[in-house]
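Known limitations

Files may contain more than one protein. Parsers should not assume a single record per file. Below, a two-record file is shown to illustrate correct handling: read the sequence, read the token line, then continue until end of file.
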Amino acid sequence: MGIRNYLRGTVFLSHAVKHFRTTRLRRTHPYGIIPERPSRVIVEPTNACNLACSYCGNKDMVRPWTYLPMDRFRELIAQMEELGVPRITLHTIGESTMHPDLPQMISVAKAAGITATLSTNGTLLTEEMCTALVKAGPDILNVSVDAADPEKLRAIRPGINPEEVLAGMRRLRRIRDEHGEVTDSPWGEVKLPSLVATSVITRYWDKAEEQAWFEMYGPLMDDVFFHWPNSHAGYVPDEPHKRRGILPPKMRDWLYKKVRYSCHYPWDALFLLSDGTMSVCRFDFDARVEVGRFPESSLLDLWNGQKMMSLRKAHMDFDFKDWSTCEDCNATFYENRHEHYLRSQSIKKRNGYVAERDMWLTPEPMKARRERGTGAIQI
């Protein structure tokens, strides 16, 4: 297991293996193995955001701020229910809690039997918002917070009020514990939502900051998760928190590009943006990876449409002449979720943190979780 973890968690080696598998698979499946339906839909309630985080491309987006209409969302849920799409995520590149109907969206999805997760920067967790979110009953609620030190947090996330975020997280935990819906789970009977804190490892992350982070946020969360920043597909070209390596950046990019793997999203998910654009990319700030519009085209038609097939072929052949946005996306150069998992486990262990709920269980309905066992969560 140790050797296997090492290989899976070593970015270059794991990507080289995935690259080889793609080149072998395309001999018999030039478009890859296409599921009958997406495994999830990732929804952008709004692309508006009240922060300007140093590692995020939202601040460089030129697309106007819009808010997803409820009638469009209800149509999405109806089609997801009909097709049997089991999961929805209510977050992409904006701050979800800025949408006035976010709790209602969660309620509509849950009423249809769909597993619902969302993420927030924690700046708008008022008593009213926390109560509405908890009563709506999402399965997972993720709060992104990258530092315990107020000055460091302000430097990473300009516009943030660290005291308000901490107060909001405490409020959320209290209301969840008091009023959350009780449900069966792999961890026994628990109250929803399960609360997760995620942190981007920036240049401010050191031993003292790490310890302070756990002391401040650890008691408020059911589990925690750490990951490295990236350029958000080129929207943050200077990458202020980029990991240092032995090779010069240009040589490293060239080398990793040679063993790039096929992005999994064209075979996994659809992304409904707040203006009705259907995309296939979590970094698509300006709707450049558009495969159609919803509900003008149905989910199934979009999933099997010509543009999706073209995108899949591009990723199988590593030929992006028709999808230039994908060409230099370093998420497919350097990202490795197993590396993030191993790093998270290591950080938790050295800080003596034991998760109340192991959130690396599959984020499917509780019964399915028990039947299927464990796997990596998609936060």
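...continuing to the second record:
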Amino acid sequence: MRTILIIGAGRSASSLIQYLLNKSEEENLHLIIGDLSLELAQKKTNNHPNATPISLDIFDENQRKEAIQKANIVISMLPAHLHVEVAKDCISYKKHLVTASYVSDAMQALDAAAKENNLIFMNEIGLDPGVDHMSAMKVIDEIKDKGGKMLLFESFCGGLVAPESDNNLWNYKFTWAPRNVVLAGQGGAAKFIQEGAYKYIPYCNLFRRTEFLEVEDYGRFEAYSNRDSLKYRSVYGLDEVLTLYRGTIRKVGFSKAWNMFVQLGMTDDSYIMEDSENMSYRQFVNSFLPYHPTDSVEIKTRFILKIDQDDSMWDKLLELDLFSREKKVGLINATPAQILEKILSDSWTLQPKDKDMIVMYHKFGYELNGKKEQIDSKMVCIGEDQTYTAMSKTVGLPVAMATLLILNGKITTPGVQLPIRKEVYLPILKELEQYAVVFKEQHMPYLGYNPDKDFN
């Protein structure tokens, strides 16, 4: 039996585990599923004969090393900052490693050691990053293989609520880590290149600079800029491209509404609010507003945000019970961002029958044989239920597929890497189509820059 160690049995691991269990007989696999919660690991294995759930504390060095030693390959579904110690152990015991996380500087520093030991450390093989890389590189490589020159690449992705479960005024529910949603866009200006000109959007303006997208059968969406769109320019081989932009998709109107929290300062994670555990939601809001001897919290909020009582933005705030005197924060030494996450979780948690939705949209502008063309590539994936969500499917399945390809000797290039080579993305994208992760391409004349006019 070939042993796969899966560290972390959270929500994103559900489809990953199910896929590998379904393949375990024909592929001669045994899964060891380790999580701090033995109960959670047991739930994910569902008493399958080819799986062993274990309680695994990643900070227990002996326990961690013992588990890694027993495996042929390791999948880490831990938070990104916890991968490195696992990776170091994988080098010590000569084990391949697969993660869905961004490559950190600490992980990249292990590249030489991984190559020396002929080990594959596959990273960014989830959804975004992951499916976005693979689906983008497939089209970019096809264009270049024909002799085309890339002019524009824009890429958008969003984890949303499915239309049949979209029943709040924000048209949004948490389908992945709520904390990441609250902190999105912080840590520096968003930067990208547009028609040859570098552009920067500071956090204070991020949610007021959006682009509209149309997806057939699903309507209109908006996208705000990711923090650093330029980091993949060399990775994708697009150093000469005129436009490179990556953004996050939301339903139209979300960004304008979210900007209210940014204006008030509720997304700040840099300081602790005193006596936060005893604070009511209303007191939390009032703490960001100026003192007034007679005006209510509601009046002060509308004045600061410059919204009227009949404005739809106001209805969205009311829907969250932000002005409740009864509801308490209940968090000790909490930051504004942590408190906002708690408040939003009351309203935005997926209910048992809710389904989520992933939307991905790429735009490719290129010149071929003296003619400028554009390809729009779109993918929509709907989840099955709260366990086998679209997010779990699009994150977990590529991880599982890459793991099997490595075990079976189909992926052979060693080192710390992303899924940007044909040996990785071609078989995975093809197999993902069996799970309703399908990209539909639309070809059209290039809609980009007019060189006779200077609009940039």
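Parsers that stop after the first record will miss the second one. For reference, the second record is described as follows. The chain is about 30% helix and 25% strand.
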